[in-house]
Amino acid sequence: xxxxxxTLLLSILMTIPQAMAQQPVWALVIHGGAGxxxxxxxxxxxQVQYEAKLLEALAAGQNVLAGGGTAMDAAIAAVQIMEESxxxxxxxxxxxxxxxxxxxxxxxxxxxxxxxxxxAGVTVIRSPVExxxxxxxxxxxxxxxGRGAEAFARExxxxxxxxxxxxxxxxxxxxxxxxxxxEKEGRKGTVGAVALDKEGNxxxxxxxxxxxFKKYGRIGDSPVIGAGTYASNESCAVSCTGHGEYFIRxxxxxxxxxxxxxxxxxxxxxxxxxxxxxxxxxxxxxxxIALDKNGNISTPFNTPGMFRGFVTSASxxxxxxxx
Length: 323
Fold this sequence. Notes:
Glutamine Phosphoribosylpyrophosphate, subunit 1, domain 1; alpha+beta
């Protein structure tokens, strides 16, 4: 009997290092938008460009996390790489609204403190996601919009640019083609990142130019905490992309966390149900990236494709576009 007990104890002890090795110390997941992302719409040359930029964004966040930096710093670093790229609908290359202007939205949330920040409808702030962070860290508010947000950014010493900075010919041609319909099948999308750092803290960040030809000061889910962005150390961090009205009505980002906490679902069970059943049944299109407190990843989408990638302390970087 003693021999059997000793054998059992040794077996348990031997499995502990294996389990610890499998669980990542830190993790980062990113997205570059969901939609009609198919090989038929994206040329091989463009696929190479997307892959390179997604890997660059992962590397930026990875450098922060591997060096012991915070999840928030990592998420911001990854998103800013995509904000600077005309490949995505965020920052430079953002889509045009009905008046032929670029209006940008962004939000962040810290899973450790529960604090959040957002900006909406800004036109001259080079990095909307950094402005969102400043709202969280340096104001008493959660969301600032339009001229007020820009005045705040100026006070904070953030880099401001002429509206023409965000212009790209591709986005302008897309705007001209859309004119009287909202874009649902475009190749460029909202960007986001979720991160887990070495201290076990989660963070999420999202940035977008919104819908092509949006009217009347329309604001989607990206700057809305609980709809497009959410993070809590008790459950998960989430960043969404898609038809924002549906994500707002369903409080999608928060709902992932709620289903985990109240129903005991895994992050993948919760995220997959919401995107592929709940939203789909309503006609809502899009996807999300989610990361739980143990480093488990979920990236469901109900569109033909979604730009996405991840890297962890236990695995190298990987990016995907199609199903």
